[in-house]
UniProtKB/TrEMBL annotation, chain A:
Aux/IAA proteins are short-lived transcriptional factors that function as repressors of early auxin response genes at low auxin concentrations. GO terms for cellular component: nucleus. Residues 1-68 are annotated as: Disordered. Homodimers and heterodimers. It is found in: Nucleus. Residues 115-219 form the PB1 domain. Belongs to the Aux/IAA family. This is Auxin-responsive protein. InterPro entries: AUX/IAA_dom (IPR033389), AUX_IAA (IPR003311), PB1-like (IPR053793). Keywords: Auxin signaling pathway, Nucleus, Repressor, Transcription, Transcription regulation.
TrEMBL record, chain B:
One of its GO terms (biological process) is SCF-dependent proteasomal ubiquitin-dependent protein catabolic process. It comes from Aegilops tauschii subsp. strangulata (Goatgrass). It comes from the Eukaryota. This is Transport inhibitor response 1-like protein. Its main location: nucleus. GO terms for cellular component: nucleus; SCF ubiquitin ligase complex. Residues 76-122 form the Transport inhibitor response domain. The keyword Cell division does not apply. It holds the Pfam family F-box_5. Residues 18-56 form the COI1 F-box domain. Pathway: Protein modification; protein ubiquitination. The keyword Nucleus applies. It is found in: Nucleus.
Length: 232, 588
């Protein structure tokens, strides 16, 4: 698997919904519908609003009134589960969904509401991806998401060695540990300089990061030298 | 027309067969509708030639229906072209990436054959920066660029347009995915450039240089439509309005700010100066306190698009109720039934209503019911087009709506949960939708939802005599449903179906019908490969495309006839099978 050697990153292993869901819609277009079938929490098991009874109504006469009415009543109190998510249903344009998602995250207290998409490239990968930095709350989050996203490009390559605690404690360790690892995460800032990810506080980083690049460790050594700062 | 044959007393007989082309072309110029021009062209060879040589506007509803070069050769005088690409369901994520619909071949052919092209419009297509560069450099009098739901280009491509198109009048970007390369595309308009009439960059995510925008707006005295993006804050909107009081259409972009009385005063004053404002839109995470700043323009508004506005409550309703001349209203279901009741009472000239779901996957909170639609259809006599998302419906409501509003031309109802029955009687909604098609004789577009059996399709097939587009999801119970549609609906052009138990038989039985239609989409139905092969063989002028799991790579030739087909997309074409299919699309 791909390991990104962020300074201070922990080993992954969190089950996280693919950030692919947050990427530009052109890349998130639904999996083939047969996969969608597994996404539908249809219809028997879940206590959906009268629908589960109704979905079988073609087989049974519509006399399922009592349980359905109960469900409907419960529904009006908003007690039911969220609707099953079927790909492409309800038919709301992806564009609209993304715009509203941006507003919703704003309502939850994010700063200016619009998603902050940045391109992510990786040395040797045939195409780039995009991530919304606002979907992550820390470097670890981002690192894990990117690992998931790009692991498909690592074939037959050994995973990275993550920096040991001893490495992290010493200043100069950054350069050495980078060279030992295969990949390093870098970003382009507003001045179009390529910087090593991890030096700035996360919130500040999200505002100034324009692009991300997963570089080979050997290439990145020079960058690390440029941006080396005293680390806590 | 055939008056043919020589006659004595030729002075009495108009020389139809020898009218000079210029006369014919002049006559045809009075036929704006493509259908009428098509009919004229079918009269005789003379008329065919005159019509096609003089055709100025061309609409290609399916980019694969004809080869770009053929279209350009056939209609050499085209000044305005519109091309549409991906199937409609691509909007909802049912078409994986890299499906096709590239604009490049069309731009290349146009660059070769239509040097005088003035207008180009692409919808649901992949438009690259190279396309935009080619447009900018190929047409010396290029004036109008409209891109709707497109992708594949960046602000660098926009810069090519703004720099190269010296006579640009309209740059209209609607709901596209635009890569932000931080290039200052707006700055590339030369200082001498003043011809802009429409500028819509509402879908752009990035910042624009406000000073440049302001100067542009100041010097383009013919600017009528300005739709800003989210990056432009409220106080800047006020400044722009002062520079462009002649605006007819404004999209405010982001409209959220803490309430400040001086900003309010600024906005109010700015809007007071806009006597011509008729259309208003914006992504209003609005602080409702600002809405009164708009009161002075309410009376004049004919179109209000609040469908990206999460504002709600009494201020919203009060605002809309002042828009007495509203013809088009797009809102979120946050308006709720009582809000629509107010609309019904205030907006007697309403023609089009769209109500979008604020929380499509929410936990069943019923904000909006059938009540709202019943009220509006009862009180708005000119209402003819509806798109309505809601959680529940009854046959009684639909029957009432049908009785009140036989003048619907577009009726799209989306009940959020698939297969939802009439919540009072628990029956299917067959009766309700049947009432709609029986009453609305002029219905051209219909989307059905909720619990529906084959019977509703019998009714639609029999009564949908003007129906051109039909969308069906999670409905019907057997092949009969599809058969009713395909054997009825005389004028059907586009049929899109998902998740219905429709199989091979009705498809094959009505194969000829498919050539009278523009396209058919069927996904998650009960089709098998064998039937698709038969269809393709029977109907050589149709392209039969199969789409399966992008991960699966096994070629379709090797699969047996009884393999299930996940997605079928069939369309008529004179260009033969396309050559740009991705791996997951196979043409049978």
């Amino acid at each position: 698997t791909l390991r990104l050697g962020l300074p201070g990153s922990e080993s992954p292993d969190r089950d996280r919904d693919g950030p692919a869901d947050d990427v530009a819609p052109a890349l998130t277009l639904g999996p083939a519908p047969h996969k969608a079938a597994s996404k539908r929490a249809f219809p028997d098991a879940s206590p959906h609003r009268g629908c589960s009874a109704a979905a079988r109504a073609e087989d049974k006469p519509p006399s399922a009134a009592p349980p359905a009415a109960k469900l409907a009543a419960a529904d009006r109190q908003g007690l039911l589960l969220p609707r099953a998510q079927v790909v492409g249903w309800p038919p709301v344009r992806n564009y609209r969904k993304n715009t509203l998602a941006a507003s919703a995250s704003k309502a939850k207290g994010a700063d200016d509401g619009a998603p902050h998409y940045v391109k992510v490239s990786m040395d040797g990968a045939p195409y780039l991806r995009k991530v919304d930095l606002k979907m992550y709350s820390s470097y670890e989050d981002l690192s894990m998401a990117l690992q998931k996203m790009f692991s498909c490009f690592i074939t037959g390559q050994s995973s990275l060695r993550k920096p040991s605690t001893k490495d992290r404690l010493t200043n100069r360790s950054n350069v050495d540990s980078l060279q030992d690892q295969e990949y390093v995460l870098t970003y382009e800032d507003k001045d179009a300089d390529w910087m090593l990810v991890g030096d700035l506080p996360w919130d500040l980083f999200t505002t100034i990061c324009r692009k991300l690049k997963i570089m080979r460790g050997s290439d990145a050594a020079g960058i690390a030298g440029k941006t080396l700062v005293c680390r806590k | 027309m055939g008056r043919g044959g020589a006659r004595d007393g030729a002075a009495a007989a108009p020389p139809w067969h020898s009218l000079p082309d210029e006369v014919l072309e002049h006559a045809f110029s009075f036929l704006p509708a493509a259908a009428d021009r098509g009919a004229a062209a079918a009269v005789c060879h003379g008329w065919l030639g005159a019509e096609r040589r003089s055709r100025r506007r061309l609409a290609v509803a399916n980019c694969y229906a004809a080869a770009p070069r053929d279209a350009v050769d056939r209609f050499p005088s085209v000044r305005a072209a519109e091309v549409k690409g991906k199937p409609h369901f691509a909007d909802f994520g049912l078409v994986p990436p890299a499906w096709g619909a590239e604009a490049a071949p069309w731009v290349a052919a146009a660059a070769d054959g239509w040097p005088l092209l003035e207008e180009l419009s692409f919808k649901r297509m992949v438009v690259t920066d190279e396309c935009l560069e080619m447009i900018a450099s190929s047409f010396r009098n290029f004036q109008v660029l409209r891109l709707v739901s497109c992708e594949g280009f960046s602000t660098a491509g926009l810069a090519a347009i703004t720099e190269g198109c010296r006579n640009l009048r309209e740059l209209d970007l609607q709901e596209n995915y635009i890569e932000d390369c931080s290039s200052h595309w707006l700055s590339y308009f030369p200082e001498s450039f003043t011809s802009l009439e429409t500028l819509n960059f509402s879908c752009l995510e990035g910042e624009v240089n406000f000073a440049v925008l302001e100067r542009l707006v100041s010097r383009c005295r013919n600017l009528k439509t300005l739709k800003l993006n989210n990056a432009i804050p409220l106080d800047k909107v006020a400044s722009l309005l002062r520079k462009a009081p002649q605006l007819v259409e404004l999209g405010t972009g982001k409209f959220s700010a803490e309430y400040h009385s001086d900003l309010f005063a600024k906005l109010e004053a700015a809007f007071a100066g806009c006597k011509s404002l008729r259309r208003l839109s914006g992504a209003w995470d609005a602080v409702p306190d600002y809405l009164p700043a708009f009161y002075c323009v309410c009376e004049g508004l004919t179109s209000l698009n609040l469908s990206y506005a999460t504002v709600r409550g009494p201020e919203l309703i009060k605002f809309i109720s002042r828009c007495k001349n509203l013809q088009q209203l797009w809102v979120m279901d946050l308006i709720e039934d009582h809000g629509l009741a107010v609309v019904a009472g205030s907006c007697s000239k309403l023609q089009e209503l769209r109500v979008f779901p604020s929380d499509p996957f929410g936990a069943g909170q019923v904000l909006l019911t059938e009540r709202g639609l019943v009220d509006v259809s009862a009180s708005c006599p000119m209402l003819e087009s509806v798109l309505y998302f809601c959680g529940q419906m009854t046959n009684e409501a639909l029957i009432t709506i049908a009785k009140n509003r036989p003048n619907f031309t577009c009726f799209r109802l989306c009940i959020l949960e698939p297969r939802t029955p009439d919540y009072v009687t628990r029956e299917s909604l067959d009766a309700g939708f049947s009432a709609i098609v029986e009453s609305c004789k002029g219905l051209r577009r219909l989307s059905v939802s909720g619990l529906l059996t084959d019977l509703v399709f019998k009714s639609i097939g029999a009564n949908g005599n003007c129906l051109e587009m039909l969308s069906i999801a999670f409905a019907g119970n057997s092949d009969l449903g599809l058969h009713y549609i395909l054997s009825g609906c005389k004028t059907l052009k586009k049929l899109e179906i998902r998740d219905c138990p429709f199989g091979n038989k009705p498809l094959l039985a009505n194969a000829a019908k498919l050539e009278t239609m523009r396209s058919l989409w069927m996904s998650s139905c009960s089709l098998t490969l064998g039937a698709c092969r038969q269809l393709a063989e029977k109907m050589p002028r149709l392209t039969v495309e199969i789409m399966n799991d992008p991960g699966r790579t096994c070629p379709v030739e090797s699969l047996p006839d009884d393999s299930p087909v996940e997605t079928l997309y069939v369309y008529r074409t004179i260009a033969g099978p396309r050559s740009d299919t991705p791996d997951y699309v196979q043409i049978v």
